[in-house]
């Protein structure tokens, strides 16, 4: 089966960078297209209603941070697959909703896993949600595998 459209979730963490590089390799091998999705929202949209407001919670700041993450990972993908057709999409909303929606009709959804880095082996909420609402086959890439470590860029930054 030839993969034509691969969607990868990107949040700027080493785990999502490993997933991105795996997705690039897969898309290049299958002569496919890559869609990079970064979901974002203000901290006020995801915090408890009784939590204190912080000036860091403003929309412009969050949008700027999200844009920087997406630009960095898009550059990483284009560097790893110079001839690959790469599209990037900034989606305002929760990744648990945005990623399955973006992957609807795709051939593959690729996500990073922070389970081993977290230390308890449990899967995160985003990954579990995407596995529950699979719009297509889902691949989970662990940044701690030897192959992923080999491809990881030195000094990759977290989004937060």
Task: Give the structure's gist in a few sentences.
It comes from Nonomuraea glycinis. The protein has 160 residues and is of the alpha/beta class.
In N-to-C order, the SSE pattern is EHEHHEHEHHEH
CATH architecture of the domain at 1-33 and 62-84 and 94-137: 3-Layer(aba) Sandwich
Q: What top-tier CATH class of the domain at 1-33 and 62-84 and 94-137 fits best?
A: Alpha Beta
Task: Give the strand tally.
Answer: 5
Q: What is the helix tally?
A: 7
Cα-atom radius of gyration: 15 Å
The helix-and-strand class reads alpha/beta
Overall spatial form: globular
Full CATH superfamily name of the domain at 1-33 and 62-84 and 94-137:
HUPs
Largest sheet, in brief, is: 5 strands, parallel
Domain UspA: 4-141
Protein name: Universal stress protein
Family: Belongs to the universal stress protein A family.
InterPro entries: Rossmann-like_a/b/a_fold (IPR014729), Universal_stress_UspA (IPR006015), UspA (IPR006016)
List keywords for this structure.
single chain, 160 residues, alpha/beta, Rossmann fold
């Amino acid at each position: 089966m030839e993969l034509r459209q691969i969607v990868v979730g990107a949040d700027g963490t080493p785990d999502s960078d490993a997933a991105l590089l795996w997705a690039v390799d897969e898309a290049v091998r299958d002569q496919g297209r890559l869609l990079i999705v970064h979901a974002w929202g203000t901290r006020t949209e995801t915090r408890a209603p009784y939590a204190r407001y912080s000036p860091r919670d403003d929309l412009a700041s969050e949008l700027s941070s999200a844009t920087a993450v997406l630009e960095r990972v898009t550059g990483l993908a284009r560097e790893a697959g110079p001839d690959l057709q790469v599209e990037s999409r900034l989606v305002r909303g929760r990744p648990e909703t945005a990623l399955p929606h973006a992957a609807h009709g795709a051939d593959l959804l690729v996500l990073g896993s922070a389970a081993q880095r977290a230390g308890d082996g449990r899967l995160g909420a985003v990954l579990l949600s995407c596995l529950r609402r699979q719009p297509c086959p889902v691949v989970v890439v662990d940044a701690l595998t030897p192959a992923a470590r080999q491809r990881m860029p030195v000094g990759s930054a977290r989004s937060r």
